[in-house]
Design a protein that fits this description.
two-stranded antiparallel ribbon, 3-stranded antiparallel sheet, alpha+beta
């Protein structure tokens, strides 16, 4: 769970006033962050487990597979050659 600073009063699992700190799962309050009701807290460095940054990075040793060129194989297709 992450810490968020309350920028505008709102009612969540309980009423929150401006300046309060709210502990919540980032996915469940994403709409409130986008609306400007909450902001990610700059609290302790150990609050966030870094899961979001790990998901965003692609492994350096993995390449995307090359797509097959279907135009080259269509002529070899039996159904295409019988028509």
């Amino acid at each position: 769970m992450a810490s968020f600073d309350v920028l505008r009063p709102h009612i969540g699992d309980r009423p929150y006033a401006q300046g309060d700190t709210r502990e919540a799962d980032a996915a469940s309050v994403k709409h409130l962050v986008r609306a400007g009701v909450l902001a990610a807290s700059a609290g302790k460095a150990g609050d966030d487990d870094g899961a979001d940054t790990k998901k965003a990075k692609a492994p350096a040793n993995k390449a995307a597979p090359k797509p097959a060129n279907k135009a080259d194989t269509a002529a070899a297709n039996k159904a295409a050659s019988q028509a």
